[in-house]
Design goal:
Elements: E1 13-16, H1 24-37, E2 42-45, E3 54-55, H2 58-62, E4 71-75, H3 78-89, E5 94-100, H4 108-115, E6 119-122, H5 125-129, E7 136-137, H6 153-159, E8 166-171, H7 180-190, E9 197-202, H8 210-222, E10 229-233, H9 237-245, E11 247-252, H10 261-268, E12 272-276, H11 281-284, E13 292-294, H12 299-311, H13 313-330, H14 333-347
Helix pairs in contact: 1-14, 3-4, 7-12, 12-13
């Protein structure tokens, strides 16, 4: 949906996505941008544009130079902040917003760029604590219509043609930071005891992670679980959503994370969640109520938290129902978009 030439001047918001590789940042941006486009005249700049928002190209962007009315530029990466600062300095009437999910001390260039922003959003109090300036805390939200429990979870699982009756999943790029090895090691110990379960790793294997991924595959084969620990590779987002609906249990195993959107995606579909204390896990999960929390990188703790759920899938289903209710109450996409809109309105 390219933006019309005669409507470019009436834009209120540009959502830049200046990153070629699809990532978690892109996924969060794609989810909330169409909601923001319902509140503001908005356009997406860059690849991977979602449905529901117009697209703007470089040629149209150049035509906005010296425009009088202010225009929001909402960056989520350093390169997007750099472009925004440069355009602003050259006369584009931009109001610069940056969303930070990082839970670490920033480099000097990031700190300098943050100091040039007109408004800062942090996805959690922890992320805000690293920013060294005032920020509005707005947690990520999830589209609870797209990420919803299936009408029949058993039928959804059967559709995959996997052995057993239940799936336990871990989604995200296959690498150490995501704790893919922690998940595989836990599954090698648990699956022989629980033949009704199959484990699924959904996510891309990048060339630089091929050695790591091959080592995981060797561990799986050595355990004799080649048919019961499935690594799908990268999938279209629609297929990822179907895999979520096949899950009885979701394991969030990241060693470190910005926010961790898969937390609320899994909870939204009604999967029971076991999560490492990384990213927004302690913000999102009520330990013992809507999921269980474990130390990052701890295989023994992950096994201990998963085993009761695998032993009693009915208990897992009840936890999943409470998790879904929590997302509806606290982490909906509408709540996120409305809070971001308030930040925009304060600027323009």
């Amino acid at each position: 949906m390219p933006i019309e030439n005669n409507s470019a001047d009436h834009l209120q918001l540009i959502v830049p996505n200046l990153h070629r590789r699809y990532s978690g940042v892109t996924a969060t941006n794609r989810m909330v941008a169409p909601k923001l486009a319902q509140l503001f005249r908005a356009a997406w700049l860059g690849p991977d544009a979602p449905e529901g928002i117009a697209r703007i190209g470089i040629a149209d962007l150049l035509k906005l130079w010296r425009r009088r009315s202010p225009l929001i530029w909402h960056a989520r990466r350093n390169n997007e902040m750099i472009v925004g600062v440069l355009l602003q300095s050259l006369g584009w009437p931009l109001k610069l917003v940056f969303t930070s999910a990082a839970q670490r001390h920033h480099t000097w260039i990031t700190r300098w760029l943050i100091s040039r922003m007109d408004a800062i959003i942090a996805t959690s109090d922890i992320s805000a604590s690293f920013l060294k300036r005032e920020a509005t805390v707005i947690p990520h939200g999830v589209d609870t219509d797209l990420y919803a429990p299936p009408a029949d979870r058993a039928a959804a699982f059967a559709e995959a043609g996997l052995p057993g009756r239940h799936a336990i999943g871990c989604f995200g790029r296959v690498r150490a930071q995501k704790g893919s090895d922690v998940f595989v090691d836990a599954m090698c110990r648990l699956l022989p005891r629980y033949p009704d379960f199959t484990a699924v790793l959904v996510g891309a294997i990048t060339p630089e992670q091929s050695v790591f991924a091959n080592d995981l595959k060797k561990r799986i084969e050595a355990a004799g679980l080649g048919s019961r620990i499935v690594i799908t590779g990268e999938l279209p987002i629609e297929e990822v959503q179907r895999w979520y609906q096949r899950l009885t249990i979701y394991a969030f195993t990241s060693r470190n994370e910005g926010f961790g959107l898969t937390l609320i995606e899994a909870m939204a579909v009604g999967a029971a969640l076991v999560a490492s204390r990384a990213g927004a896990a302690e913000l999102v999960v009520e330990d013992g109520v809507t999921g269980a929390l474990t130390p990052p990188g701890d295989v023994d703790a992950l096994v201990a938290a998963l085993e009761p759920l695998m032993r009693d899938p009915a208990s897992a289903a009840a936890i999943g129902e409470r998790a879904r209710a929590r997302v509806l109450a606290k982490f909906s996409l509408d709540s996120e978009a409305n809070a971001i809109a308030e930040v925009y309105r304060a600027l323009v």
